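COMPLEX REQUEST
Ligand: zinc ion
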Amino acid sequence: MKLRFPLALVVTAACGSTPPPTIAPSEPVPVPVPVPVPVPVPVPDQDAGAADAADASPDAAVSELSVDAGPGSGTGTGTGTGVRPAPPKWLKGSTHVHAAPSGDSSTDVKGVIAWYETRGYDFIVLTDHNRVTRVDPAIAAGPAVRFPDKGLVVLAGVELTYNPGKCDPPPPEPEGKCRIHVNGLGVHTRPEGKIEWADRKATTRVSMYRAALRWIAAAGGVVQLNHPQWHWGTSTELLSLLAGEGVHLVEIANVQFAKWNAGDARRPSTEQLWDAVLTAGGTMWGIATDDAHDYDEGGGGRYPAGGGWIMVDAPREPAAIVRAIDEGRFYASTGVSLARAEVWDGALEIEVAGAGPASHVTRFIGAGGHVLAEIKGPRARFHLAGVGGYVRAVVERGDGARAWVQPVRPGAHAGGH
Ligand SMILES: [Zn+2]
Ligand SMILES: [Zn+2]
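STATUS: Structure written out below.
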């Protein structure tokens, strides 16, 4: 029996898990709280702690994965005697892509499609600023604007973009602007021209975001919060509040904003923001994107394409892809490819695809952003029994490229599910 990782969270939600913290909508200024700081722990021995290093002998490791009866086998997710399903056929895609209709890209839609198609992508979401760009005139509604029998699927999308000079809380630097940028993925409507969605009377960031959420909900799309730390635009409270209002996707690795993603001495990184939401019981999936504007062959330009994407476990069908993203059935990547990332026999298991000689380290991260285990090699497993809160994983290759595996909630396996 197989229980793939995001189902854990779906089950949790159905059981009525701890809701995200509520903050009164009228409260204009989120109050800062301590930011969780990941605390490294020593690398465990192979037979110590909850995790197993399974990279010493690749062949032995594969068989061990299917017969293991360690502490995780009590969670009810399988006894190790079943036949393990084949690895997912991941679809590669970017959920943040601009073309000429955005006004700040010189590449037309045809050129953008050619760029991704020739590089083996399965889908993109076309997210021009404040407009839903059409591609195939025959598709007048629904979650795709292009859906050929073969080749690149282009999902309908938009980046709702609003850059007022003032907002509450304000950007810390005098030259900073308020960057209220929210993607709608798989929107069903096709408004003509520029979308006037912003609430220009709004003064607080949260009310500005709410206007975006309202527009995307009405358009039948899925919300993705973009580059949350650009000009330090998001706090843990704001992100938790938005998580409670339907934001379940956040860019933790928009590769155009690496400096901001990393945080600084006083401001949390995007991953620390994510961990804070998860620690508070919220549902949030981490996205990597290229936020592409420039498609030069040599990778030049201000915002070059490539560099960040997601790998989705879904059939090649527009609505199914959008649903899988919404439900967290994907991992995010800046270069690391995974063969598997799933819960099997009570453990979260990660397997790097085609690892070759490159060195990989997998970190399992839990409540408070704490590193629960660190395992070297192309395979890693972490027993979930007895672990509270959530567990997510980050695989890092020697050159710094990463893959982020979505959080699972071990508690979701208890209580008769
Ligand atoms: Zn943006
Ligand atoms: Zn953008």
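REMARKS: Residues 1-81, 413-417 have pLDDT under 50 and may be disordered. The chain has two domains: 5-17+33-84+338-409, 91-312.
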